[in-house]
Amino acid sequence: MPENKQGLLRRALPRTLKGLLRRHVGHFFVSRDAVEYQGWIRERLEQRARLYTDPVPPLLFSILTPVWDGSPLPFLRELAGSVIRQNQTGACEWVVLDNGCSRLHLRKYLEQLKEIPWVKFQRVTNNVGIVRGLRMCLEQASGRYVLPVDGDDCLSQDALTVAASFLRQEGYPAIVYTDEDKITGKRLHQPYLKPDWDPVLFFNSPYIAHLSIVSRDVALAVGAYTDPQTEGSADWDLFVRFLNRGFTPAHLSEVLYSWRVHASSTADHSGNKDFIQNSQKAVLQRLL
Question: What does the pLDDT look like over 76-90, one tens digit per residue?
């Protein structure tokens, strides 16, 4: 084996072992923080059922999800379930892109989703990447707002209702972000209860990433998802484009999005995508 490959392997193995520990230690040693959070979020969901009662208007939302071969099927099924259960009336549309999938079981499941009347489905033969895939979904969307959601992540059971109520109460701002947590298996943990808009924090990190709720018309006007150099930081770049046009993000302070932790996800380790640092640099250069 060439020496450079041996070096890569030596560096990757410790990271892999650490990742296994991170993902599985919670099954055996559940932290007090995790236990308290799971109790808190259950209570909060019950409270939200009384607080947010507005029906979701037709075509207020288009959910955007490019799916590729690296999207684990069990997680895509879980996401689909979280969308289907809260969209029984078909008020929202789900724009799903088969981004060059070749795995047969994944293709078969996408064909099943295609049969749902409010799923807008398209396919490309070859994977066009994250940014181009989101752009294709955006161009197909017809909702007033678009919500980019990764195929391995999950929405809260009331995300659409809460978001619709918030938008009406706030006078329909052009760009909104929510709080989030992480999900490992079925376990919710590590909530990120974010501050209201903080430009200094935004310069430091893409804290607004999940869940993003943005005006489709404005997103098209500012050239959202058109820079391939931002492949690993599409949400951050999206918000920068809105900021540069004078829009201030509004904060919906509820946990509506669960970021999936698994072996190949950036929720587990940013090193799982070797293009992350270059994409962050491209975003910050545009911001500056």
Answer: 999 999 999 999 999
Residue among 97, 136, 124, 120 nearest 225 (CA): 136
Cite the DSSP H helix spans in the chain. 3-28, 32-51, 73-85, 104-114, 130-140, 159-169, 199-204, 216-221, 234-244, 276-287
CB 144 within 8 A of CB 213: no
Model confidence over 22-56: pLDDT tens digits? 545 555 567 889 999 999 999 999 999 999 988 99
Token pair of 146, please?
A: 């678009």
pTM for the full predicted model: 0.86
Query: H or E segment at 185?
Result: none
CA–CA separation, 266 and 284 (whole Å):
19
Give first-to-last CA distance, the chain, whole Å.
44
